[in-house]
Write a structure and sequence with these properties.
With 107 residues, the chain is an alpha+beta fold. The two termini are 15 Å apart. It is globular. Strand 3 and strand 4 form a beta hairpin. The chain is built from three helices and four strands; from the N terminus they run ββαββαα.
Length: 107
């Protein structure tokens, strides 16, 4: 199961998603073209991503796609991998909740 987020705003480090699993973070520092290829599928029309993270919750892996020299975007995406979302957003919580429901149905 794979989900994603793209770097776009700040992270709310005061609001950890309860039950979020500990994921192995795999940071891929790649060319702008490769990062764009991996991340563009998650953005809207005419959006240029700076980085993105993909969650493989079944495998407990989080992939971060980022370009060299973009440390703040990497830290932002790693924050998502650790279970933190944007202020006022429930997007990551919804991703986890949906995965958990689907995972429980398979058991």
């Amino acid at each position: 199961s794979c989900c994603f987020l793209m770097a776009c705003t700040t992270i709310d480090y005061t609001n950890h998603i309860e039950g979020w699993p500990e994921l192995t973070v795999d940071v891929k520092v790649v060319s702008f073209e490769k990062m764009s290829e991996e991340c563009a599928k998650y953005g809207g029309f005419m959006q240029v991503p700076l980085a993105c993270s993909e969650y493989f919750l079944d495998d407990l892996i989080c992939k971060v796609w980022v370009t060299s020299g973009n440390g703040w975007a990497e830290r932002h995406e790693v924050g998502h991998c650790e279970g933190y979302d944007h202020p006022g957003s429930d997007e990551l919580r919804d991703i986890y909740s949906n995965w958990k429901k689907n995972h429980e149905q398979i058991k």
